[in-house]
Amino acid sequence: MKEELKIFYHIFTTTKDAIEKFMNMLDPVIQNAIDDHERLYYHHIFEEEEQRLSRLVVLIPLIQKFQQEKEEKDFSPTNNEFNRLLQELNLEKFGLHNFVEHLDLALFRFKDEERSTLLNQLREVSYKDYQQVKAMLAEINGRFDTNYVDPHAYHDEEHDHLDRSATSAPTKATTTTNSRGMQPKKGFTVGSLI
Amino acid sequence: MKEELKIFYHIFTTTKDAIEKFMNMLDPVIQNAIDDHERLYYHHIFEEEEQRLSRLVVLIPLIQKFQQEKEEKDFSPTNNEFNRLLQELNLEKFGLHNFVEHLDLALFRFKDEERSTLLNQLREVSYKDYQQVKAMLAEINGRFDTNYVDPHAYHDEEHDHLDRSATSAPTKATTTTNSRGMQPKKGFTVGSLI
User: Fold this and answer.
1) Nearest Cβ partner of A175 from B30, B80, B183?
2) Average of pLDDT values for A158-183?
3) pLDDT tens, A44-70?
4) ipTM higher than the 0.90 cut
5) What residue ranges do the domains of chain B occupy?
6) For residue B178, which residues of chain A lie inside 8 Å, CB to CB?
7) Which residues in chain B touch residue A97, judged by CB atoms under 8 angstroms apart?
8) Cellular component per GO (chains A, B) (predicted)?
9) Do A18 and A128 form a contact (C-beta atoms < 8 A)?
10) B94 Cβ partners below 8 Å, 6+ apart?
């Protein structure tokens, strides 16, 4: 678990810096928006990333605490603080996923070299980190038998539209399938979030 | 606390239904999107609401559990499950806030009577519920002295752009102020999320 905590620490400190770069890019866009719709749109994305930033400000020290102070026996679902750590990590997996999509949405709009270069750099790292967090958490949730049932497991399976190595943008066929596949079922059952 | 749990239960079951109505409205929009940008845009909002739905599927039974089985002594920060409840409620306050903005963004686009009527109905209830959840949690976090420092307290103060009784849409002046006000500070300090 120590090695995984080191990787989580690296990923979440990296993404915290990335959020700040993205927010700094959006700030003048919001101030100079051409209409109310555009302003609300970027303002909304800005706020969602700000919410994520404020969660990371709490999560990162929690990861550090487990890195520095704890013994292997503390990495157990009987330890409430460890459960909280896993719960937060599971939430921030989605935070990273949503960030990749915020970057993709921005890439549709900001085509100038400076911003598109920055956005592509952030996007490349965030996508890779999202994939790694997803894989690590699948393994950890399985190892600790936490009864965590990822409500989006079927969703992630279909999430190849995030993978730009296949296509430069989501294809109609893929996304249409996702849209149907994602329809919430009646009687939708989800396990505990830890 | 029992009375507050009853209100939370009502608000979060109501918003769960509202998410499903909104997702059903978005589904054909995604399928018939005019281009990749529009498709990703609505697909992204659809996914964020889907993530919120999956959290509510866990939160609502947790509220019910506290409604039905617990005594007043269990409503204490020394009870880990109660802390988890408060933490989830604090998270879903932001979920409601973001939902109001998703509805506002949709209202810019869907002007036909059927969809704008639905969106306005969902928007009116969700805004009222967001305000109530915010007020109740401020009071509860204070009562239990949970050391919860809302990372967005300054933000909420400025959040009158959500209040349509003042203006029909965010005004440029207000939003510009928000954008500046929301800039993350260096040395940003945030208390525990419980």
Assistant:
1) B30
2) 45
3) 999 999 999 999 999 999 999 998 866
4) no
5) 2-146
6) 43
7) 47
8) encapsulin nanocompartment
9) no
10) A51, B152
